[in-house]
Amino acid sequence: MGLPALGVTGAAVATVAGQMTACSLAVLYFFRTNPGIHITLPDMRPDRSIAKRIYAVGVPSGLMTAMPSLLVGILNALLVELHARRLLRSVYISNCKPLSTCRPTV
């Protein structure tokens, strides 16, 4: 297309540019189709009571969503450790000809 090959950097730049364009068009569409809504800077001030209600719903929901991923990560770590121990044990035992002469080296 006549543009230099930018690889991953180009993909990142294109993603950010696309997201900014989509956001700008969405905001423009919103204000064009809702002329009765006017947002001013004082309207942007956070309201503690609303924030508390949002967090009361969002934090437990987020934790419930994160739990399966956390569980899979913990189980994978346990399985890797178990596999590593079994592998070391099999290598240790296979290197000892008579089992009675196998002594751990520290």
Q: Give the termini distance in whole angstroms.
A: 64 Å
Overall 3D geometry? flat
Assign a percent range to the helix content: 55-70%
What is the C-alpha radius of gyration, as a whole number of Å?
A: 29 Å
Poorly predicted parts: none
Summed over residues and divided by their number, the pLDDT gives a mean of 86
| Largest β-sheet summary | none
Class from secondary-structure proportions: mainly alpha
How big a fraction of the residues is strand?
Answer: under 5%
Q: What is the succession of H and E elements? A: HH
Provide an overview of this structure.
The protein has 106 residues and is mostly helical. It is 70% helix and 0% strand. It has two helices and no strands. It has helices at 7-33, 48-94. The longest helix has 47 residues, at 48-94. The chain is flat and about 85 Å long.
Describe the structure using short key phrases.
106 residues, mainly alpha
Q: What's the gist of this structure?
A:
The chain has 106 residues and is an all-alpha fold.
Q: Mind sketching the topology for me?
A:
Elements: H1 7-33, H2 48-94
